[in-house]
Amino acid sequence: MIKRLRRWLQVKTGRVETPIDGDAPFWVVSVGFHLILLVLLARIIMPAEKPSDLKLVVNASEQIDLVELPPEVAFDEEPTEPLGSNDAESFELANQEAPELAIENEVIEEFDMPVMEELGEIASENENLFSETAEVMTTVAKTGAAGFSVKGAAGAVDRMTEEILLSLQTRKTTVVWMFDQSASLLRQRAEITERFEKIYTELGMLQAAGDNAFSKHDDRPLLTQVWAFGQSINPMLEEETDDLEVIKESITRIPRDNTGIENVFSTVLEGVDRFKKDRRINRATGQRNRNIMFIVVSDESGDDSMRLDDAVEACNKYEIPVYVIGVPAPFGRDTTFVKWVDPDPKYDQEPQFAEVSQGPESLFSERLKLEFTGGDFDDLEMIDSGFGPFSLTRLCFETGGIYFAVHPNRRVGRVRRTDTKAYSADLRYFFKPDNMRKYRPDYVSRQEYMKRLKENEARYVLVQAAEASATGQLQAPQYRFPKLNEATFVNQVSQAQRAAALLEPRLGQLYGILKTGEEAREKEASPRWQAGYDLAFGRIMAAKVRAESYNAELAAAKTKKKFEDEKNNTWVLEPADKISTGSQAENMAAKARFYLERVIDQHPDTPWAMLAARELETPIGWEWKEDFTQPPEPRQRPANNNNNNAQPAPNPQPQQNAMPPKQKRPPPKL
């Protein structure tokens, strides 16, 4: 055959030599043989495709549920736009996310047993390697819930019943309650203690705990441990228990810590170290021994937030969710004032207010602190942010837990200070959680926060300006100038001018910082950053125009202004739409109104809209009004005429059966 092929090629080409001379024929035969062999082997190894014999037969008369219900999910409000943390050094050198579906507490637990056996053989000489490898394989991203607002601690405990039940559906669970030892938490601890029985009753654990089947420690599905923390960490039970009375009694024994220090993140880290053995992978089953849940009860933001990243990392490594029954953070502020009533009736029961660290809701404040407004903002200094303190909320959010923001006065609308409940923060306004969800801060690390800030200059300059406005007070202006005599009047006006002269550069600095982010603002997609920048830029422009026109009006007042009504003797400077400093100031005032009105239109029923509306209620310019001030009475010298025989006034007789006033104690460090 090869000879015939060679002969045919010689005739066709007219050449004696052909391509298949020499060893070429044998190479071609070898290649062909091996190709045929590979095809035969492939058909033997790969199974033939078989049609499925599965048929679904449905009887129309029967109702068959063919859809498995999905696990409970929480929608994480909006796309995450850059937001994060900024430190003072960074400023000296110079949110929302796409809807994401977060399945709460979803944990990949099960493994294919042949795979686990293979891992066991590989790591037979190194059990730590086996444990660490399995733990890494089970680590999954979890997202918790932020902004879960409730009126009382009992509501949070009821929700925790559901969370514990979900945990018990996967495996036995240990719940570790971590109570803040501060004095301001006395009432809340008592409320939670009373609610404990509801948890155990609803979960059916009281009856189960007395059954012989649960006599062994490992067989008891739900165990509880109680810790107390302040400056130090104090376990209240020698070992975990399911005895309800023992649990409740341990909470009543929690001592008060008067240092005012709450090392909450150190307590969480200590808890991880104590209970991580229960979260290791069981070599025989390929699963963790028990579920662990931390429930922190505190009314502060924590004094050791520098350990937050370590706490997040440790909890995620062992898949321990952290839940916090805490307080709402004040909008853009570090501290609030908690109403304190002495718990001992032997002492004065008059309410007192003590400053407590409960905020802010973001890593750094994103709210300008301005007082030169011409209006009254006192009741808006303490308003609900819609979220908890940043560090504790981030701990919950990143570990798959929930932050419960508890306040007994929670209702939409204004709360008077006299109506504030004892041991609660003096917050004047609350907002609907549904409205606030898309304004959630970004719960990320400090490094990620800085990275996100720098992605849009409007964000960066907003935080920078908020930081700068907090370095000193922008004092409110003087409005009344009695003209009892010319010299006194001129002196008062001059002093007010000096104060304004000191204020104007500060306002100009803040305006210059925010101005640099104006162009980048139009590229911002996050509702939170939009609202924050627009409010800050609108307010600083309004304040700048007010300060400049205020100074101009004071200068004009020195030019022998005369009263229209001769009975009046006082000039009063009142807010008005009149701007006396020229067209440039008028244009800036119009621009300020535009930014403030955009906040109200685009972000209704939020703290930003409330502050913008209050700013717009006060006109940006000034005008003089006349008024009357009662002159002081002349001092009268006593006339004794050398008469020293005046009789002293008799001492008043003490009232019969009069109760001595109760001693008043200052509030402890809360």
Task: Give a structural overview.
The protein has 670 residues and is α/β, with parallel strands linked by helices. Helix content is 39%, strand content 12%. The protein contains 20 helices and 16 strands. The protein has helices spanning 2-13, 24-45, 88-92, 113-122, 127-138, 153-168, 186-202, 205-209, 244-252, 264-275, 308-317, 390-399, 433-436, 446-453, 457-469, 486-515, 518-521, 527-557, 583-602, 607-617; strands at 73-76, 100-103, 145-150, 173-180, 222-229, 233-235, 291-297, 322-326, 335-340, 352-357, 402-406, 413-414, 429-430, 480-482, 570-576, 621-627. The protein has a seven-stranded mixed β-sheet, sandwiched between helices. A hairpin with a 3-residue loop joins β5 (222-229) and β6. It starts with a helix and ends in a 43-residue tail after the last strand.
Question: Helix and strand layout, with pairings?
Answer:
Blueprint: H1 2-13, H2 24-45, E1 73-76, H3 88-92, E2 100-103, H4 113-122, H5 127-138, E3 145-150, H6 153-168, E4 173-180, H7 186-202, H8 205-209, E5 222-229, E6 233-235, H9 244-252, H10 264-275, E7 291-297, H11 308-317, E8 322-326, E9 335-340, E10 352-357, H12 390-399, E11 402-406, E12 413-414, E13 429-430, H13 433-436, H14 446-453, H15 457-469, E14 480-482, H16 486-515, H17 518-521, H18 527-557, E15 570-576, H19 583-602, H20 607-617, E16 621-627
Parallel strand pairs: 3-11, 4-5, 4-7, 7-8, 8-11
Antiparallel strand pairs: 1-2, 5-6, 9-10, 12-13, 14-15, 15-16
Helix pairs in contact: 6-7, 7-9, 10-11, 11-12, 15-16, 15-18, 16-18, 18-19, 18-20, 19-20
